[in-house]
Amino acid sequence: MNSPKTLLRVESLVKHFPVGGLFGRGDHVRAVDGVSLSLLRGQTLALVGESGSGKTTLGRCIVRLIEPTSGRVSFDGVDILALRRTEMRALRRRMQIVFQDPTGSLNPRMTVGTAVREPLEVHRIARGKDAHARVNKLFREVGLDPSLTARYPHELSGGQKQRVGIARALSIQPEFIVLDEPVSALDVSVQAQVVNLLVDLQKARDLTYLFIAHDLAVVRHIADRIAVMYLGKIVETADVIPLYDRPLHPYTVSLLSAVPVPDPAAQRKRIPLRGEMPSSRHPPPGCPFHTRCPHTRKDERCSTEVPELQEVEPGRWAACHYAETPMTLGRGS
Prior knowledge:
By secondary structure, the chain is an alpha/beta fold. The chain folds into two domains: 43-65 and 83-223, Rossmann fold, CATH 3.40.50; 250-333, no CATH class. It has helices at 55-62, 85-91, 112-122, 128-141, 158-170, 188-205, 216-219, 240-245, 250-257, 301-304; strands at 6-19, 27-40, 44-48, 70-75, 78-79, 95-98, 176-180, 208-213, 225-230, 233-239, 310-313, 316-318. A hairpin with a 2-residue loop joins strand 9 (225-230) and strand 10 (233-239).
């Protein structure tokens, strides 16, 4: 039975994209390959991993911008994959997405004020002067001057355009927002401002976030829990502080070793990964990470047996045969 506080539950979600071949015998790209996770109301779950790990595809499947191949997505106890189009449209008021590219997500022929007003009119929330007043209030809420509503996207900076995207997502008062790498396309000086804005908005509006990112330094300041994704699978989940202090999966260890720290004496020893991420069209047998793992054992278990995502410690899950004896984060001199 779902906890009363559980807003989102994903169970064995799969998304395979067909790749054409001769006589219809094509392969499939296994973008998402059996992912399960849950998210409590008011919580931020950060989904991290390298480009190509399936993070964006998972986020879009959860809000049904992409139809999953199989699995189940429950939002507040409702199986959204079973909903008809009209039913799903009504649910869209409760769940929204902010895209990575703020320029590509805005219509260049439409003023940014009109872009924020459009959801209000589509969902019949407000029209006319009421809609105009709501748009101005939203602009102020995300730190923009209402005078910018008459501007076109090309007249705004990247940070301003991303704030417009956030305002548009907030316009219909959702409970849950997928943030698909919302700061990765922004200057470093602007990233912290946008992250702080998202934290403030979450507190003010009691929002629940799925925050997709590849930068573990960013998610530390916004996430309650972190799920690490590799080659379409979740390989580790934990609360933020335990994961940063003592990661259980070698892939997480390597990702954290690349995060810069202010104190050079506390800098972690860099643990580079071998080679490139395998193709999700032809994933390796056994553990999907074993071809790059510095801890692959000689007993061949890693290359033949797929590790299950299991609870190693209370609240900590890892998909590694040797998660109870993880590689440590070395310190540089």
